[in-house]
From TrEMBL:
It comes from Nelumbo nucifera. GO terms for molecular function: cellulase activity. Its EC number is 3.2.1.4. This is Endoglucanase. The keyword Protease does not apply. The lineage of its organism: Eukaryota, Viridiplantae, Streptophyta, Embryophyta, Tracheophyta. The gene is LOC104607523. Belongs to the glycosyl hydrolase 9 (cellulase E) family.
Length: 501
């Protein structure tokens, strides 16, 4: 959506507004009143159907998508159809896909009982689309297929997934070239998903847990970062390179196996290996690459419940992380935009916003159930304060921000129209059945027209540190949606469906 002023060009207008902001102070936040969290939740889950790869089912609701990637893995003699495209391209990156799966499952575990029954079914379907694929990636002993598609070739095209004629290169790790990070996250995803399916499909849940145990053994027996493997480094870096080491994924995988199996062997693993695997490092990060803050929150549950005193150090770290998110705390050092959005420099900022909001709510619930608070120096922070911090973030995403726009596509009256997403920006196969080759899509990429296909529910990377969003398809850091932005938001929105105030 672009403003229309007769005397000022668009970019000059933006410059004028920025100068005005600097002169007048922080921009006013447009309050849109109460939000329809149930509508947002429904759309947030629907987004995953727009990201599906493989043979689409009869009940597929995103009708402008069609079958794609049907030959994935065939050159290597393995079926790797299915799964999700991570963002606006046509690659299946295993590391962020596994993290996405873990967060979808954690959303159901913590907040599934707050979802309307239809949305819980849709959330489980979204998880299963991923877990069915992850099971295929671990079908061979001591090998994990971690990626399908050459990103350098793919990113040189602007092409619908249905038309893909680029190399569907398959990348894998094994006992000689290990990948404890991807394996640990895959183990976490399968273990968490086993809990999500335990009541609705116990047989499937058992299959997931059994495989999670096997994959974790591979991760722990053959230690190493997958992007250190020269055979696949060019395919995963710089996109989903392991920047923070594989150690956190080992603890993360063990923590989820402890939660899912209640086996003391995993509790002992977390307790005995915490220091050597860096559990006390980088506690203020949580995302597809760095699991530390999420690990601390997850593990703290047992300590708060009084059943695992050996985990106290994790609880201390979780408390410290929460204090950094409270503006009134003397230890606060998380950056916020003038409009109140959590901001971390780099790309795709909303991934930090949604994952941190999720942790705020989960930890608040753990504290509430055990009647505890967090000591943040001069102030004591309780569950209500953490809930409020999370609500500010989700309301900003849905429209309470200086731009007065929703950053979830299809929610509200004003939302991004020109997202960085191939399938959304190119005419659908239904409307344009003719093949669109690699470079033939460039005209659509360069167009200033709104995308013809609305990717309902997709949350984009979001505004910059100045709260400004230009709705520019080429600016992928701001305008590209990703699965790992949406996954934790599913749980956050489910909470606010049940607790809107």
């Amino acid at each position: 959506m672009r403003f229309s002023f007769p005397s000022l060009g668009y970019h000059n207008l933006l410059l004028f507004l920025l100068v005005l902001v600097l002169f007048l102070g922080s921009p006013p936040v447009v309050q849109s009143g109460s939000h329809d969290y149930q509508d947002a939740l429904s759309k947030c889950i629907l987004f995953f159907e727009g990201q599906r790869s493989g043979k689409l089912p009869a009940d597929q609701r995103v009708s402008w998508r069609a079958d794609s990637g049907l030959g994935d893995g065939s050159a290597n003699g393995v079926d790797l159809t299915g799964g999700y495209y991570d963002a606006g391209d046509n690659i299946k990156f295993g590391f962020p896909m596994a993290f996405t799966t873990t967060m979808l499952a954690w959303s159901v575990i913590e907040f599934g009982d707050m979802m309307p029954p239809a949305e819980l079914r849709n959330a489980l379907a979204a998880i299963r689309w991923a877990t069915d694929y992850l099971l295929k990636t671990i079908s061979q002993p001591d090998r994990i297929f971690v990626q399908v598609g050459d990103p350098l070739v793919d990113h040189n095209c602007w092409e619908r997934p249905e038309d893909m004629d680029t190399a569907r290169t398959v990348y894998s790790v094994d006992s000689v070239n290990p990948g404890s990070d991807v394996a640990g996250e895959t183990a976490a995803a399968l273990a968490a998903s086993s809990m999500a399916f335990r009541s609705s499909d116990p047989a499937y849940a058992e299959t997931l847990l059994r495989n999670a145990i096997r994959v974790f053994e591979f991760a722990d027996n053959y230690k190493g970062a997958y992007s250190d493997n020269e055979n696949i480094r060019s395919g995963v870096c710089p996109f989903y390179c392991d920047f923070d080491g594989y150690q956190d994924e080992l603890l993360w995988g063990a923590a989820w196996l402890r939660r899912a199996s209640q086996s003391d062997s995993y509790l002992n693993y977390i307790t005995n290996n915490g220091k050597t695997l860096g559990a006390e490092d980088n506690i203020n990060e949580f995302g597809w690459d760095n699991k530390h803050a999420g690990l601390n929150v997850l593990v703290s549950k047992e300590f708060l419940e009084g059943s695992a005193y050996s985990l106290q150090s994790y609880k201390v770290s979780a408390d410290s992380f929460m204090c950094t998110l409270i503006p009134e705390s003397s230890s606060s050092h998380i950056q916020y935009t003038p409009g109140g959005l959590i901001y971390k420099p780099g790309g795709s900022n909303m991934q930090h916003v949604t994952s941190i909001a999720f942790l705020l709510l989960v930890y608040a619930n753990y504290l509430s159930r055990t009647s505890q608070t967090v000591n943040c120096g001069s102030i004591s922070v309780g569950p209500t304060s953490l809930h409020q911090q999370a609500k500010k973030q989700v309301d900003y995403i849905l429209g309470d921000n200086p731009m007065g726009m929703s950053y979830m596509v299809g929610y509200g009256d004003k939302y991004p129209q020109r997202i960085h997403h191939r399938g959304s920006s190119l005419p659908s196969v239904r409307d344009h059945p003719e093949f669109i080759a690699c470079k033939e899509g460039s005209v659509y990429f360069n167009s200033t027209n709104p995308n013809p296909n609305v990717l309902v529910g997709g949350v984009v990377g979001g505004p910059g540190e100045d709260d400004v969003y230009e709705d520019d398809r080429a600016d992928f850091r701001k305008s590209e949606p990703t699965t790992y932005i949406n996954a934790p938001l599913v749980g956050v929105l489910a909470y606010f469906v049940a607790n809107p105030n």
